[in-house]
Amino acid sequence: MKLHCLLVVVVCFAVCGCEKAPTVPQPTGQLVFQPRFQFADGETTHQGTGFVVATADGKRVGVTSAHFLDFEGAPMVSAEWLAVPDDSEVFQFTHSLGAPGDGGQVGPDVFDLRRDYFIIVGDEPATVDCQPLELDDRPRPKVSERVWLPNKDADAPEGYEMVAGFVDEVADEYIGIELVDEIQLQSQSGSPIISQRTGKVLGTLARGGSDAGKTFLRLCPAKDILEVIAANPPTMKLEQAVGDPSLARDPSRTTAAERSVVQLTSAAAKEIARRMEDLPPAHLRFSIDGDDTQGFRHGMQFDEQIDPVDDFVSVSHGVNVVVDRASVRYLDGTTVDWLDDEEGMGFQFDNPNLVQDEE
């Protein structure tokens, strides 16, 4: 009988693939935040998930991933950690602790997430209801070690629902996690994965996906983030750490949201109106196709749909003009004219960012 019970325990462990129960209490309080980044061209984005770590000298730093940062876009000027339930500002950061990581290396022959981190510092708030987390300094966690993911959820009182999982793979370059329940991953890069053995952060969510009803996570190991914090490198202003300084906003210019990214001449607007006469109500969407190697080409089409987050909408000579966020930097300041002469007819783009072409 005793042997039979022992076998049941062993089989249960093999089926579950993880330790039987947590050895530390589940953390509570405000653990994760919604990052909001502001850029020198006036744009604001909400990306990933952030949390706060207490350093050895008692200061608090923000931690998230780096792979979603645009190092070729406009410089970042500030970062805020917002409370998930109501978007209220909890922390504001102005500097990066050393240079951000490169976002990790992922390819056919490499999978290395050790440098997928963005560590930021700023002024300490006078009072804040926040639970700083501690990074796990173990070289490697145990395979089958149970973990928690604070799964960001604006409808939850604390801004997240705790999801259980376990370590299914350990390597120097990353840590693999399988969640007990399948979830939809959306804007969760940078989330802390907390060990149920130590109560400390094993790593940050760097890559993830679902397959056959299971959700798998791949982490930037906490020990690599901890090494940067312990080294205490010189801080950098955010505009020096993220983005291209040459794209900093000229104070004399308005932002894309305040003006028309693309202007139509009266001739172009008249031709557009003529073409729209027999069509359902629509907007005129401009975009950029191609790349640096193949060359760029202007795109122009009628579109009945607008993304309220990603699209800039303006009116030029009575025509609703739409430009998506990714195309703004390539189309900003463009004028579109309609030519009809002995050389032919067509739309002509006067784009200061690209070589002219005609449609």
UniProtKB/TrEMBL annotation:
Residue span, Core domain: 262-354
Keyword vocabulary terms for this entry: Signal
GO molecular function, one term: iron ion binding
Pfam families according to UniProt: Fe-S_biosyn
InterPro entries: ATAP_core_dom (IPR000361), HesB-like_dom_sf (IPR035903), Peptidase_S1_PA (IPR009003)
Signal peptide: 1-21
Single Gene Ontology BP annotation: iron-sulfur cluster assembly
PANTHER family cross-referenced by the UniProt entry: IRON-SULFUR CLUSTER ASSEMBLY 2 HOMOLOG, MITOCHONDRIAL
Name of the protein in question: Iron-sulfur cluster assembly accessory protein
Organism per entry: Aeoliella straminimaris
